[in-house]
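Researcher: I need the complex structure. Ligand is magnesium ion. Inputs:
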Amino acid sequence: MLKIKMLAPATIEKIAAGEVIVRPASVVKELAENAIDAGSDRIRVDIEQGGKRSIRIRDNGEGIRYNEVKLAFARHATSKLSQIEDLNHLETLGFRGEALASVAAISRVTIRTISKSEELGSETTFEGGHCTAQRVLPYDKGTDICVRDLFYNVPARQKHMMKDKTEERVIHQVMGRIALSHPEIAFDFISDGRKIFSTPGDGRLQSVIECLYGRSFFKSLKKLDAKNEPMELQGYIGDLTSMRSSKDRQILFINGRTVENRGLSRAFEEAYQGYLMNHKHPVGIIFMTLPGRMLDVNMHPSKMEIGILNQSLVDILFRQEIRRAVQQMDLTVDLSEKI
Ligand code: ADP
Ligand code: MG
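Model: Output:
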């Protein structure tokens, strides 16, 4: 008997899915990004029990044609990329064609959608990656996708999920970032029937920040607008009054994508050196633009990590520009008042 065997397709599918979808928040991120890529200007996200019971996303985007719905759920099926060179000038958040396949492999999915080019819509259901039914359905606009019982067929992962409140908090964070990077889209985020936030979709970043964190928080921010070839920076950074005990409001986007990047995160804190209070972290909602050829967005299936060519140079430029902005701020606050 051979010691080495091929894995069964269903096992391969679950392993691959586990790289893209690690918790309910990953489903929300992937599906919301799809809704954005579909050109929606209104997106509503409803979750139940921290997303463990259900995640439902409704958009008013371009929809999917009846005879392409099943294809959309096949692994490596995408309308967004056709050759590797396209990665250098992507205009969409998705490109791997893996999200829908991954989500469907480990949950129960119902999708209703109507393509802008068709008269009738459709409703299709999937369970553990298999299509269980499809029918034609009158439907008014966009796509409504509902994901139930996440990880029902992957017990180890199911056990791994946190309390409802914790998963809800992570989804809240993900939704906040998505809303910040798309002020032109009106987002509604609802958890167990309770509205968590709504953004107006008026195209102003200020409106989104106020909806998420309140007006007084916004008042403590300073506008950032800097250029240092090949990098551009836009957004807001905080003064001493807005410092926080966690880094939860240090939010960085590179070319419109929300990313985690250790080098830049460290550079941001360093820029405040001399102004920082003990155990406090500065806040910043920063949009960085770099030429596409300097980035590798395909570092990880989740697309949260981003590879930067000449990372250390970019770190230095970033620190310089933030430092300059910090020094221009009115930091003559009487510290004794704040402590
Ligand atoms: P990717 O986003 O990387 O292309 P996905 O698996 O997330 O891969 O989606 C597969 C395809 O399904 C997309 O390329 C798109 O054509 C279509 N699609 C997914 N979600 C939506 C949506 N909400 N509205 C319209 N089309 C969608
Ligand atoms: Mg996608």
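Model: Summary of the prediction. The pocket of magnesium ion (ligand 2) is lined by residues 30, 33-34, 94, 99 (CB under 6 Å).
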